[in-house]
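Quick start: what a row looks like.
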Amino acid sequence: MARAADVEAIERATLQAVAPAVVEALPGWLLPMDSGTVGRARSAVPLHHAAPDLGLLASILARYEARGFTPALRLPDLPAFVPFQQALRQQGFVRQQPTLTQTAPIEALLNVESDPAAVLADAPDAAWMAMFLGEGLDPVDGASRARSLSRATGTRYASLRENGQTLACGAASFGHGWLGVHGMRTAAAQRGRGLAGRLLRAMAREAAQHGIPQAFLQVDASNAPALALYQRLGFSTAWAYAYWRRPDPASV
Protein backbone atom coordinates (compact mmCIF):
# COMPACT_ATOMS: atom_id res chain seq x y z
CA MET A 1 0.00 0.00 0.00
CA ALA A 2 1.23 3.49 -0.81
CA ARG A 3 2.30 5.66 2.12
CA ALA A 4 -0.50 7.91 3.37
CA ALA A 5 1.63 11.02 2.93
CA ASP A 6 2.36 10.08 -0.68
CA VAL A 7 -1.30 9.45 -1.46
CA GLU A 8 -2.32 12.88 -0.19
CA ALA A 9 0.57 14.64 -1.92
CA ILE A 10 -0.13 12.95 -5.27
CA GLU A 11 -3.84 13.69 -5.14
CA ARG A 12 -3.24 17.34 -4.26
CA ALA A 13 -0.62 17.61 -7.01
CA THR A 14 -3.05 16.01 -9.48
CA LEU A 15 -5.71 18.64 -8.80
CA GLN A 16 -3.12 21.39 -9.04
CA ALA A 17 -2.32 20.15 -12.55
CA VAL A 18 -5.88 19.61 -13.84
CA ALA A 19 -7.14 22.85 -12.24
CA PRO A 20 -10.84 22.24 -11.60
CA ALA A 21 -13.12 25.26 -11.50
CA VAL A 22 -14.12 24.52 -7.88
CA VAL A 23 -12.56 22.41 -5.13
CA GLU A 24 -14.41 21.75 -1.89
CA ALA A 25 -13.24 19.56 0.98
CA LEU A 26 -14.60 17.17 3.56
CA PRO A 27 -12.54 15.35 6.20
CA GLY A 28 -10.12 13.13 4.26
CA TRP A 29 -11.56 14.07 0.86
CA LEU A 30 -11.14 16.60 -1.93
CA LEU A 31 -14.20 17.39 -4.04
CA PRO A 32 -13.15 18.91 -7.38
CA MET A 33 -16.00 20.16 -9.56
CA ASP A 34 -15.83 21.19 -13.18
CA SER A 35 -18.07 21.30 -16.24
CA GLY A 36 -15.32 20.00 -18.55
CA THR A 37 -14.39 16.50 -19.65
CA VAL A 38 -11.30 15.83 -17.51
CA GLY A 39 -12.37 13.07 -15.11
CA ARG A 40 -9.87 13.92 -12.38
CA ALA A 41 -11.18 17.49 -12.31
CA ARG A 42 -14.75 16.43 -11.58
CA SER A 43 -14.66 13.43 -9.24
CA ALA A 44 -14.34 13.27 -5.45
CA VAL A 45 -11.14 11.58 -4.30
CA PRO A 46 -9.96 10.33 -0.89
CA LEU A 47 -6.70 11.67 0.52
CA HIS A 48 -5.83 8.38 2.21
CA HIS A 49 -6.39 4.68 1.60
CA ALA A 50 -7.61 3.68 5.06
CA ALA A 51 -11.24 2.60 5.30
CA PRO A 52 -13.33 5.67 4.44
CA ASP A 53 -16.17 6.97 6.59
CA LEU A 54 -19.27 5.65 4.85
CA GLY A 55 -21.28 8.34 6.57
CA LEU A 56 -19.61 10.95 4.35
CA LEU A 57 -21.07 9.55 1.13
CA ALA A 58 -24.35 11.43 1.45
CA SER A 59 -22.46 14.66 2.14
CA ILE A 60 -20.21 14.16 -0.88
CA LEU A 61 -23.14 13.63 -3.22
CA ALA A 62 -25.04 16.57 -1.71
CA ARG A 63 -22.09 18.93 -2.22
CA TYR A 64 -22.00 18.19 -5.95
CA GLU A 65 -25.74 18.44 -6.37
CA ALA A 66 -25.91 21.73 -4.44
CA ARG A 67 -23.55 23.32 -6.95
CA GLY A 68 -25.28 21.78 -9.96
CA PHE A 69 -22.55 19.27 -10.82
CA THR A 70 -23.06 15.59 -11.57
CA PRO A 71 -21.61 13.53 -8.70
CA ALA A 72 -18.69 11.23 -9.48
CA LEU A 73 -15.99 9.60 -7.38
CA ARG A 74 -12.51 8.28 -8.06
CA LEU A 75 -11.83 5.37 -5.71
CA PRO A 76 -8.83 3.09 -5.24
CA ASP A 77 -9.37 -0.59 -5.95
CA LEU A 78 -8.63 -1.70 -2.40
CA PRO A 79 -10.50 -3.95 0.04
CA ALA A 80 -10.99 -1.04 2.46
CA PHE A 81 -13.19 0.68 -0.13
CA VAL A 82 -15.48 -2.27 -0.90
CA PRO A 83 -18.29 -1.11 1.46
CA PHE A 84 -18.13 2.36 -0.12
CA GLN A 85 -18.30 0.84 -3.60
CA GLN A 86 -21.25 -1.35 -2.60
CA ALA A 87 -23.11 1.70 -1.30
CA LEU A 88 -22.49 3.48 -4.59
CA ARG A 89 -23.82 0.50 -6.57
CA GLN A 90 -27.00 0.62 -4.51
CA GLN A 91 -27.43 4.23 -5.63
CA GLY A 92 -26.97 3.43 -9.32
CA PHE A 93 -23.26 4.15 -9.74
CA VAL A 94 -21.09 1.91 -11.93
CA ARG A 95 -17.36 1.34 -12.04
CA GLN A 96 -15.68 2.80 -15.14
CA GLN A 97 -12.28 3.54 -16.65
CA PRO A 98 -9.79 1.51 -14.57
CA THR A 99 -6.59 3.54 -14.24
CA LEU A 100 -3.17 3.05 -12.66
CA THR A 101 -1.27 5.58 -10.60
CA GLN A 102 2.40 4.89 -11.23
CA THR A 103 5.52 6.32 -9.62
CA ALA A 104 9.23 6.37 -10.38
CA PRO A 105 12.36 7.82 -8.78
CA ILE A 106 13.66 10.88 -10.57
CA GLU A 107 17.09 9.23 -10.69
CA ALA A 108 15.76 6.49 -12.98
CA LEU A 109 14.37 9.03 -15.45
CA LEU A 110 17.66 10.89 -15.60
CA ASN A 111 19.28 7.83 -17.18
CA VAL A 112 17.13 8.00 -20.33
CA GLU A 113 18.79 8.82 -23.64
CA SER A 114 18.40 12.54 -24.34
CA ASP A 115 19.48 13.17 -27.94
CA PRO A 116 17.67 15.08 -29.31
CA ALA A 117 16.87 16.84 -26.04
CA ALA A 118 13.43 18.14 -25.16
CA VAL A 119 12.90 21.70 -23.99
CA LEU A 120 10.53 23.06 -21.34
CA ALA A 121 8.60 26.32 -21.52
CA ASP A 122 6.42 28.30 -19.13
CA ALA A 123 3.47 28.33 -21.54
CA PRO A 124 2.32 26.10 -24.40
CA ASP A 125 3.05 27.55 -27.82
CA ALA A 126 0.92 26.93 -30.91
CA ALA A 127 2.95 23.88 -31.98
CA TRP A 128 2.69 22.31 -28.51
CA MET A 129 -1.05 22.88 -28.44
CA ALA A 130 -1.51 21.49 -31.95
CA MET A 131 0.28 18.29 -30.93
CA PHE A 132 -1.64 18.05 -27.65
CA LEU A 133 -5.04 18.53 -29.30
CA GLY A 134 -4.40 16.65 -32.55
CA GLU A 135 -4.58 13.11 -33.87
CA GLY A 136 -7.89 11.69 -32.75
CA LEU A 137 -8.70 13.81 -29.72
CA ASP A 138 -12.38 14.76 -29.61
CA PRO A 139 -12.70 18.54 -30.21
CA VAL A 140 -14.94 19.06 -27.16
CA ASP A 141 -12.55 17.08 -24.98
CA GLY A 142 -9.62 18.99 -26.44
CA ALA A 143 -11.19 22.36 -25.71
CA SER A 144 -11.92 21.29 -22.14
CA ARG A 145 -8.35 20.11 -21.59
CA ALA A 146 -7.00 23.35 -23.03
CA ARG A 147 -9.08 25.33 -20.53
CA SER A 148 -7.70 23.24 -17.68
CA LEU A 149 -4.16 23.91 -18.85
CA SER A 150 -4.80 27.64 -18.94
CA ARG A 151 -5.88 27.58 -15.27
CA ALA A 152 -3.09 25.35 -13.95
CA THR A 153 -0.22 26.73 -11.89
CA GLY A 154 3.27 25.34 -11.52
CA THR A 155 3.16 23.56 -14.89
CA ARG A 156 5.88 23.49 -17.55
CA TYR A 157 5.38 22.39 -21.15
CA ALA A 158 7.85 19.97 -22.73
CA SER A 159 8.38 19.74 -26.49
CA LEU A 160 10.68 17.67 -28.62
CA ARG A 161 11.40 19.13 -32.04
CA GLU A 162 13.41 18.14 -35.11
CA ASN A 163 13.89 20.36 -38.13
CA GLY A 164 11.30 22.81 -36.84
CA GLN A 165 8.62 20.16 -36.31
CA THR A 166 7.14 19.24 -32.92
CA LEU A 167 7.25 15.45 -32.67
CA ALA A 168 6.18 14.94 -29.06
CA CYS A 169 4.90 16.94 -26.12
CA GLY A 170 3.91 16.62 -22.48
CA ALA A 171 3.14 18.70 -19.41
CA ALA A 172 5.09 18.61 -16.15
CA SER A 173 3.62 19.83 -12.87
CA PHE A 174 5.86 20.55 -9.90
CA GLY A 175 4.15 20.60 -6.54
CA HIS A 176 3.67 18.87 -3.19
CA GLY A 177 7.10 17.23 -3.53
CA TRP A 178 6.33 15.47 -6.81
CA LEU A 179 6.86 15.78 -10.53
CA GLY A 180 3.51 15.07 -12.16
CA VAL A 181 3.55 13.87 -15.78
CA HIS A 182 0.48 14.73 -17.85
CA GLY A 183 -0.74 15.01 -21.43
CA MET A 184 1.97 12.92 -23.08
CA ARG A 185 1.61 12.84 -26.87
CA THR A 186 3.83 11.52 -29.68
CA ALA A 187 3.12 11.92 -33.38
CA ALA A 188 1.91 8.59 -34.78
CA ALA A 189 4.71 8.39 -37.35
CA GLN A 190 7.35 8.95 -34.66
CA ARG A 191 6.32 6.32 -32.13
CA GLY A 192 8.88 3.71 -31.16
CA ARG A 193 11.81 6.15 -31.20
CA GLY A 194 11.95 6.72 -27.46
CA LEU A 195 10.73 10.32 -27.69
CA ALA A 196 8.50 10.04 -24.63
CA GLY A 197 11.50 8.99 -22.58
CA ARG A 198 13.38 12.08 -23.71
CA LEU A 199 10.49 14.28 -22.65
CA LEU A 200 10.53 12.60 -19.25
CA ARG A 201 14.27 13.11 -18.90
CA ALA A 202 13.89 16.84 -19.49
CA MET A 203 11.12 16.99 -16.90
CA ALA A 204 13.22 14.96 -14.45
CA ARG A 205 16.21 17.27 -14.84
CA GLU A 206 14.08 20.23 -13.81
CA ALA A 207 12.57 18.26 -10.94
CA ALA A 208 16.06 17.39 -9.71
CA GLN A 209 17.01 21.08 -9.78
CA HIS A 210 14.09 21.75 -7.45
CA GLY A 211 15.05 18.89 -5.13
CA ILE A 212 12.04 16.78 -6.13
CA PRO A 213 12.96 13.08 -5.80
CA GLN A 214 10.00 11.30 -7.39
CA ALA A 215 7.52 11.39 -10.26
CA PHE A 216 4.00 10.15 -10.80
CA LEU A 217 1.59 9.71 -13.68
CA GLN A 218 -1.82 8.17 -14.32
CA VAL A 219 -2.31 5.77 -17.20
CA ASP A 220 -5.33 3.85 -18.49
CA ALA A 221 -5.04 0.27 -17.27
CA SER A 222 -5.81 -1.06 -20.78
CA ASN A 223 -3.10 0.98 -22.54
CA ALA A 224 -0.57 -1.83 -22.96
CA PRO A 225 1.98 0.11 -25.08
CA ALA A 226 2.10 2.99 -22.57
CA LEU A 227 2.38 0.58 -19.64
CA ALA A 228 5.29 -1.23 -21.29
CA LEU A 229 7.02 2.07 -22.01
CA TYR A 230 6.63 3.38 -18.48
CA GLN A 231 7.84 0.10 -17.02
CA ARG A 232 11.01 0.33 -19.12
CA LEU A 233 11.57 3.85 -17.84
CA GLY A 234 11.32 2.79 -14.19
CA PHE A 235 7.68 3.35 -13.29
CA SER A 236 5.74 0.90 -11.16
CA THR A 237 2.12 0.85 -10.04
CA ALA A 238 1.46 2.46 -6.65
CA TRP A 239 -2.29 1.80 -6.76
CA ALA A 240 -5.15 1.23 -9.16
CA TYR A 241 -8.35 3.22 -9.16
CA ALA A 242 -11.56 3.57 -11.12
CA TYR A 243 -14.25 6.18 -11.60
CA TRP A 244 -17.72 5.66 -10.15
CA ARG A 245 -20.46 7.43 -12.09
CA ARG A 246 -24.16 7.05 -12.73
CA PRO A 247 -24.74 6.02 -16.36
CA ASP A 248 -25.87 8.72 -18.74
CA PRO A 249 -29.62 8.04 -19.33
CA ALA A 250 -29.11 8.81 -23.03
CA SER A 251 -26.62 5.94 -23.33
CA VAL A 252 -28.70 3.32 -21.53
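That is the whole record. The chain is about 35% helix and 30% strand. The chain has two domains: 4-99+242-251, 104-239.
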